[in-house]
Amino acid sequence: MFSRAVILKLVENLNFRKHSDFDKFNLEFGLEDIVKGEYIKEKEASLAKYLIHNKNAKGPKNGNLSYEILEYLIRNYRGFEDIEEKYSELANLLGIDGYSLSKEGIKRNLPNEIQIQDQEDYLTEKLVEFKFNIAKGHYEQALSSYSRGEWAASNAQLRSFVEEFFNKVHDHISKENNNSNHEKKQVLAKLGFFNQELNEWVNNGCGFIQGFWKRLHPEGSHPGLSEKDDTEFRLHTVIVTITYYMKRLENWK
Q1: Which of 22, 49, 101, 244 has the largest CB neighbor count within 10 A?
Q2: 81-90 confidence digits (pLDDT tens)
Q3: DSSP class per residue in 129-193
Q4: pTM (2 d.p.)
Q5: Residue 161 counted as domain residue
Q6: From CA 119, how far away is CA 237, in angstroms rounded?
Q7: Number of domains the chain contains
Q8: What distance in Å separates the CA atoms of residue 169 and residue 80, rounded to the nearest whole number?
Q9: C-alpha to C-alpha distances, 87 to 40, 99, 105, 232, 235, nearest whole angstrom
Q10: Quick one: which H or E segment has residue 47?
C-alpha cells in the first residue's frame, strides 16, 4: 500500500524509547512473534522489513497493517504543532504516494487505480537490475529532497534522472556512439523505442517526449524556488512516464 520510503519513515517516527512500549505495540498489532531484536533499533529494522515485504498484511482491525500503524501514529500524537509539520518528511513522502496527512487522518488524493507507490518500488528495483546506478542516484536524491521540502533541488534531480535514464536506454539497445543527449533520443526514435506513430517523438519538437522534457524544467536545472504542488506534479509525472518506458525496455528485443 505504501512505498518503501514511507514505511521506513513511518517506523522511524514511531520513535519508541522503551522496550516495554515497543512490546506493547507489538502485542496490539499481533507482531510479538514477528518483530525480533535485542535493541530498539534492531526491532525497528525488523518491523520495517516485515512491512516492506508484507504490504498486504492485515492489522487488528482487518485493514491494511501499515495503514493501521499510521493511524496509530496519528492517534497517539500529543504535540502542539500540526502533525504534518511535526512529521513533515513523512507527510511529503505520503504526498508522493498520493496521500495527505493531517490531524483528521489520512486522505487519498489520487484515484485508487493510480498506484504510484507500486510504480515507485518497481522503478527502483529495475534501475538496480539494469545497473542504471547514476540514474538511480538522481532518482533517490529527488525523493530525498522532496521529503525534506527542498522543491528546487528535487526538480533538478528529476531532470537529471530522466536525462540519464534515456541515455542509458540508448547505450543498452543501440550500437551507435552518440555524444549529445538529443542525438541519443533521436536514435531511440529511429530504433522505434519511442513510438512515432503515437507521437512520442516528432521531428518538429512537438512530440510527447519533447514536451515532457520541456515541462520538467522550463527554466533549466536550477530555476530557483518552486511550489510543492508543482514539484509533486513533476514527480508523479516522472514516476508514471519512466515506469512506462522501463517496462518497454524490459520487454525490448
Answers
A1: 101
A2: 888 889 999 9
A3: HTT-HHHHHHHHHHHHHHHTT-HHHHHHHHHHHHHHHHHHHHHHH------SHHHHHHHHHHHTS
A4: 0.73
A5: yes
A6: 11
A7: 2
A8: 49
A9: 20, 14, 13, 18, 20
A10: helix 40-53
Q: Decide if 101 is inside a domain.
A: no
pLDDT of residue 110: 67
Instruction: Give the CATH number of the domain where residue 130 resides.
Output: 1.20.120
Amino acid identity of residue 138, one-letter, is H
Same domain assignment for residues 124 and 231: yes
Q: What pLDDT, in 10s, does the model give residues 43-76?
A: 999 999 999 999 889 999 999 999 999 999 999 8
For residue 220, being part of any structural domain is answered with: yes
Type and span of the H or E element at 102: strand 99-102
DSSP string of 64-129, one letter each residue: BHHHHHHHHHHHT---SS-HHHHTHHHHHHHHHHTEEEETTEEEE-S-TT--HHHHHHHHHHHHHH
Looking at 55, 81, 107, the residue that finishes a domain is 81
Beta bridge partners of 106: 101
- The grid coordinates of residue 82 equal 500540526
CB contact at 8 A, 245 and 194 = no
CA 149, CA 80: separation in Å to the nearest integer?
21
| Whether residues 62 and 127 fall in one domain | no
125 & 75 share domain:
no
Q: How far apart are CA 2 and CA 37, in angstroms?
A: 24
Cα–Cα distances in angstroms (integers) from residue 131 to residues 29, 102, 124, 126, 162, in the given order: 38, 38, 11, 8, 15
The residue segments making up the domain with residue 66 are: 4-81
Q: Rounded CA gap, 86 and 13, in Å? A: 10
Residue 211 lies in a domain: yes
